[in-house]
Amino acid sequence: MIKAAFFDIDGTLLSPATDRLIPQSTKDALVELRRRGVKCILCTGRPKVQLPWCITDGFPGFEGGFDSYITMTGSLCYDADGVYADTPISPEVSTRFIDLVDREGFDILILNREGSFASGHGPRMLELEDMVAFRYPEADIHELVKKPVYQFCAFVPPERDEELRQAMPDCFVTRWCDVFCDIVPSNSSKPAGIRAALEHYGLRQDETIAFGDGGNDVTMLQYAHIGVAMGNGNPEAKRAADYVTDDVDKDGIPKALRRFGLIG
């Protein structure tokens, strides 16, 4: 029996076609899923400060938002009772990455508990800001790494991912889209966040379903008992999934939940 459902945000819960809001059919499905006793858990690369109100505050029938939040690709997990998984990047690794950025000159985001901060605003950074409707403040990255860092976003093309993996062997490099890649501690990932949530709530892996659309959802879809890729997802996510549903704008989430008997 499925007791926990994990959801990515962009392209999964939020639709670019409806000004990045949760479609009403998805809202109705989440309300029914919770009413049937299934925990609804967010699993995202975003930090807490960048979660939209419809995620954190909820909506009629889904008051209070999601039951739990796996943020920054599994590096910081919390619910109403507090933080239950806290996995920052080590200061030594953060400093080594900043040295690489200084040599190579590409833009980055630094994600910490306070938010997401940009090293600069080149074309790739501006493209992401258009995609997520969010303006990242610029800050001194050398000062930011003096505090715990949970995730870096490197604004490089996909063909440079392997280069970053070689330079950062103690990190996990993954990618949602072609604009940037995520860099998190090697002991962190979306599956690591899910494992932390399952331990926290006393649940099992075979009681999970997960929904995603991007490359950084691949391991989550593979780890969940049932992995569902959105119809608008990329080929990598679809290959990793147990089931490919319809687009986010075409009732993809409720259709999949009905397919597996989780809602009526």
TrEMBL record:
Record keywords, A-Z: Hydrolase
UniProt keyword annotation of Hydrolase present: yes
Pfam families (UniProt xref)? Hydrolase_3
Q: Per UniProt, what is one GO molecular function of this protein?
A: hydrolase activity
The record's listing under SUPFAM superfamilies reads: HAD-like
Known NCBIfam families for this protein? Cof-subfamily
Q: Which PANTHER family match?
A: PHOSPHATASE YKRA-RELATED, PHOSPHOSERINE PHOSPHATASE
Record's protein name: Cof-type HAD-IIB family hydrolase
Organism expressing this protein natively: Paratractidigestivibacter faecalis
Provide the taxonomic classification. Bacteria, Bacillati, Actinomycetota, Coriobacteriia, Coriobacteriales
